[in-house]
Amino acid sequence: MITGGGKRTPALAGFALSTGLIVLAQPRQRTAPARAPSTPGLG
Full-prediction pTM beyond 0.85? Predict the structure, then answer.
């Protein structure tokens, strides 16, 4: 998957960690609106 060096690995990891922290930090304010666009986006 790494075809260049390794800039996508930390980028995806950082983005995933940031999203996870935000979701865990405020799972009540962004529960439905966060999963609604994420379901069709990831799927």
Answer: no
